[in-house]
UniProtKB/TrEMBL annotation:
UniProt-recorded name of the protein: Hydrolase
Species this protein is from: Brevibacterium luteolum
A Pfam family matched in the record: Zincin_2
NCBIfam families listed in its UniProt record: DUF2342_F420 (TIGR03883), putative hydrolase (TIGR03624)
InterPro entries: CHP03883_F420-assoc (IPR022454), Zinicin_2 (IPR018766), Zinicin_2_N (IPR042271)
Domain of life: Bacteria
Length: 388
């Protein structure tokens, strides 16, 4: 059984549709993931249809809830709603989530390759990288509850029905409350990109810059950047995986060099803001709308940080532990700004790339307030002070 419902927006790629990029074989990704990824908890046909319909309604209800918390002015609210209507909502099973991400990542890789003038990989290289991607997506696909993908026309919101069903039963929380709570988090991401239409290109440019040397290093004759600096190709990636398993690092930490450290900090700061803001909004909806919201938050945070054994190893290798830290740091930043300057102050962050906090400012929100709210003429995000 495949849970899949698309609502609003442009046509979504059909299951099995090949990636247009030449960098990712969606078929190979799907086949690999299908061998590793169980279907998860699946109800009978009637209950499945009811679950899909409820999640679809929750995704629509979440629009008003998110915008109420964010307190945008009327003109901005109207503009955001118009942009949201251009997107789509999909209620999917695990394998459909894998396919959607393979398609999206294929487009990102193709754009990064085009930006560097890199040609397509060989069929063997494409197959090998697609198998690796399928294995990684299978791991994440067994636990992800939802996602907003900004790299499609209008963006698309994905809710993974089997995983939501599994987690709500593991946590023993009210199902209706939990489903709406999850929908609010993911819809918040959709609203963020609608509030800041420049954000999609901003994030994509940084992803391309980060991926370009990896792509160049994966092809024959492209193993070095100008100046003789080696690129991390497939062999380096496999070696990095071994080091990540051995040491207390993520695979990303072992691959990047000094040239990419600053870029990674910038992306980490942005993701901390987006994830932390979504966490704050989903809780700010409050018990008047989601009666068990505090109970859900307590149970979910315990569940989030309770990985042991092989799950703990996977979290470290894939950098999932760092992602969990992003929620905490970003939420603390958002709460600090809202507490002192309200949502009107925080909403300045969506106005331009210059208003985004640096990683240092995420940890020191008062410095962001001083730079953006109190001294808007001051250029650029702040970096940590140099050590003497």
């Amino acid at each position: 059984m495949r849970l899949l419902m698309t609502t609003s927006g442009a046509r979504e790629p059909a299951a099995g549709e090949s990636s247009a990029s030449g960098w990712v074989s969606v078929d190979a990704v799907r086949q690999t993931a299908a061998e590793l990824l169980g279907a998860g908890r699946l109800p009978g046909p009637a209950d499945a249809a009811a679950l899909v319909e409820e999640l679809r309604e929750d995704a629509e209800t979440a629009v008003d809830l998110v915008l109420t918390v964010m307190r945008m002015d009327t003109e901005t609210d109207t503009r955001i709603r118009r942009r949201l209507a251009e997107g789509s909502t999909l209620i999917v099973d695990r394998l459909s989530w894998v396919e959607a991400n393979a398609q999206s990542f294929g487009r990102v890789l193709a754009d990064a390759a085009a930006a560097t003038g890199t040609g397509d990989p060989s069929r063997t290289q494409r197959w090998a990288s697609s198998v690796e991607m399928g294995a990684a997506l299978a791991i994440v696909g067994s636990r992800v509850l939802g996602q907003f993908d900004p790299f499609t026309a209008g963006g698309r919101l994905l809710l993974v029905a089997p995983n939501i069903l599994t987690v709500e039963r593991e946590l023993e929380v009210p199902a209706r409350d939990f489903r709406l709570w999850v929908a609010v988090h993911e819809r918040t991401h959709h609203v963020q990109f609608a509030a800041a239409p420049w954000l999609q290109a901003h994030l994509q440019e940084r992803m391309q810059a980060f991926l370009a040397p990896v792509i160049a290093g994966s092809l024959p004759g492209r193993s070095r950047q100008p100046g003789g600096i080696e690129n991390p190709g497939l062999v380096d990636t496999l070696a990095a995986l071994a080091r990540a398993l051995r040491d207390d690092t993520s695979i990303i930490d072992t691959l990047i060099g000094p040239r990419h450290a600053e870029l990674l900090d910038e992306v980490t700061a942005l993701m901390s803001l987006l994830e932390g803001h979504a966490d704050v909004v989903m809780d700010a909806v409050g018990p008047g709308v989601i009666p068990s919201v505090r109970r859900i938050r307590a149970a979910f945070d315990t569940h989030r940080h309770s990985a042991t054994g092989i799950k703990a190893i996977i979290n470290r290798v894939l950098g999932i532990d760092e992602k969990l830290a992003q929620y905490t740091r970003g939420a603390a930043f958002v709460r600090a700004v809202v507490r002192t300057r309200g949502h009107a102050g925080l909403n300045r962050v969506w106005e331009s790339p210059e208003n985004l906090p640096s990683l240092y400012e995420i940890e020191h929100p008062a410095d962001w307030i001083a730079r953006v709210l109190d001294a808007p003429e001051q250029p650029g995000p702040l970096s940590p002070p140099e050590q003497m």
